[in-house]
Every structure is written in C-alpha cells, then in structure tokens.
Amino acid sequence: MLSQSDYEKLVEYVYRKTGIALTEKHYEKVAKNVAQRCEALGLKDFRGYFFKLRFEDRGGDEFQTLINALTVNETYFFREKYQFEALVEYILPELDRLRPANRVLRILSSPCSTGDEPFSIAIYLLEEGNIVNRRDIEIVGIDIDTMVLEKARQGKYSERSIHAIPKDLVAKYFTKRGLYYEIDPEIRDAVHFENVNVFDKQAMRRLGMFDVIFSRNMLIYFDDASRKEVAMTYYEMLNAGGYVLLGHSEYMSRIVSVFTPKKFGEAIVYQK
User: Fold this and answer.
1) In 10 A of CB 257, how many CB atoms?
2) 55 Cβ contact partners less than 8 Å away, ≥ 6 residues apart
3) Residue 124, Cα to own-chain centre: how many angstroms?
4) What is the spatial distance between Cα 175 and Cα 156, in angstroms, rounded to a whole number?
5) Dihedral of alpha carbons 38, 44, 46, 52, sign
6) DSSP string covering 99-149, please?
7) Alpha helix (H) ranges present in the chain?
8) How far apart are the C-alpha atoms of 232 and 171, rounded to whole Å?
9) β-strand 210-215 against 267-271: which pairing, if any?
10) How far apart are CA 56 and CA 76, in angstroms?
11) Which pLDDT belongs to residue 72?
C-alpha cells in the first residue's frame, strides 16, 4: 500500500507543515493509517490520498485527521511534579515580586494534550493559595491534535490519568462519575484551550506574550533545525525574565544559547 518512496514523500510533507520528523520506526503506523483513510475516502491508492492532502484539503480537515492519528499523547496528572513544585515555590514568587501587581501572569502549556498538564498547574496554584488569591493568573493550553483538545475541554479522566495525584486532592478537585473522574468545572473553565501548530508563527503570535512556558517532551520528536525554530519562537513569546520548562530528557542549552539555565529544587529551567 505504501512504498518507500511514497512514505518519504509523506514524511517530507508532514515535516514541512509540522516539524515532526517521522522515521522508519513510524512506517507501520503511518501505512496503516493511510490505508484506513483511503478506504474511508474511497480512494484507490496513496497517489489519490496524497493528491487530496496537497490540493483538495482546503480546510485542512484531512491533514488534521492524519496528525491526530500520528501524534503521541502519553501524559498524566502531576507528571514530573518537581517542575510544578519549582513553579509555585520559586518561579511564580519571583515573577510576583518583579511584575506590577495589576499585571496578569500568563502560563502556556505547549503541547497540552488532554489537559493533564495545564490542569495540574491550576491545582498546584490553588494549593499554594497565596499568589493566585492576590493576582490574576491565566493558563493557556495549545495542541496540534484536535481530538485531545476536545477531551481536555470535557475534563473527564480515567483512573490511570489521575494515579499520581494524592487521594485527598482527587477528592477535593474531582467527582467520580462511573468509570471517569470529572475535574471541578471551575478549574476546567479556568484553562483556555486552542488548536495551534507551534510552527504557525502567526497563530503563535496571536496567543500573546507569556511569563512561563511549559513545553515538555515535544522537542524530542523534532530534528535540530525544528527544535531551534521552536525554541526561538518561545524566546520571542516570553516576557523579559520569563521561563521555559522542558521535559527531563530535553536540554535547551543543546538547542540554542539565548536562555540562561537555572536550577530550582530538582528542576532545571531556562530563563529569558
């Protein structure tokens, strides 16, 4: 169904539009997805599918379907919690001290997946209790996958998603409904979600400026050039003195040299 040359064409197309660097290990998953979409669309072969992607998909719906199938969304609440601890114990107190009292502190979760990360941030802010009661804090979550964004907006999670949250906090912020745990509506509605591709510079600029950007475990899917492009986009979107937090296996100093690394507790963070 998908020859090597066809696969390489699709890999290049996806890379140009998203920065995602698919490799040979992704071949089986991609081939299976293409076969399913050809059957669903009544197309005979890859040539017809690729033509549709490039020339007939004016609204981007088919490409979005492809990306939804290819993106990995492995996440859960309080994952790498030492970073949330660094946020409330070091980063926000510093920003609260330096920013004017009437200025909103803005936090971006990119990518936000099913909302586990931005909702974890919200819970940590509420548990800290001081800064969030003293000034406005805005949390924005973005992702390229529309399906995970819909799940985030619904705010319903499996037991596996919340397994790392202490039981008293689960009882405080979630309501069990059948097999799912529904997050408190006030927390759910406090996070703004948008479908944004980090390589769409206009869409990223429209989000505005931020004081903190969480971007964990995304850059590992990009090549060096794409990582640098995203890192510089984040730099431009950060207010002076703002911070970027990456995944535990990602190091900004290996990508660009414009950030200053700092260590807060167990977390290494990067300041503009």
Assistant:
1) 9
2) none
3) 18
4) 9
5) negative
6) S-TTSPEEEEESS-TTTHHHHHHHHHHHHH-SHHHHS-EEEEEEES-HHHH
7) 4-18, 27-41, 46-51, 61-70, 81-86, 92-98, 116-128, 131-134, 146-154, 167-173, 185-190, 201-206, 224-237
8) 40
9) unpaired
10) 37
11) 67
CA 21 – CA 8 distance, rounded (Å): 11
What phi and psi values does residue 242 have, to the nearest 5 degrees? -75, 170
User: 199-206: which pairs have CB atoms within 8 A and are 24 or more residues apart?
Assistant: 199/17, 199/18, 199/19, 199/226, 199/229, 199/230, 201/233, 204/233, 204/237, 205/237
Residues of the chain with pLDDT under 50: none
Judging by DSSP bridges, how do beta strands 267-271 and 238-246 pair with one another? antiparallel
Both tokens of 209, joined, read 């400026």
Length of the chain counted residue by residue? 272
Please report, for residues 133, 176, 220, 243, the alpha-carbon distance to residue 92 in angstroms, rounded to integers and kept in the order given. Answer: 13, 31, 27, 10
The two structure tokens encoding residue 271: 């300041």
Q: How far is CA 211 from CA 21, 101, 138, 175, in A?
A: 29, 14, 10, 31
| Residue position matching structure tokens 């039981």 | 167
Coil/strand/helix, residue 176: strand
* Residue matched to tokens 């804090």: 137
pLDDT at residue 73, rounded to an integer: 66
- Output the pTM of the full model: 0.86
Dihedrals phi, psi of 132, to nearest 5 degrees: -65, -25
Mapped onto helix, strand or coil, the DSSP state of residue 46 is: helix
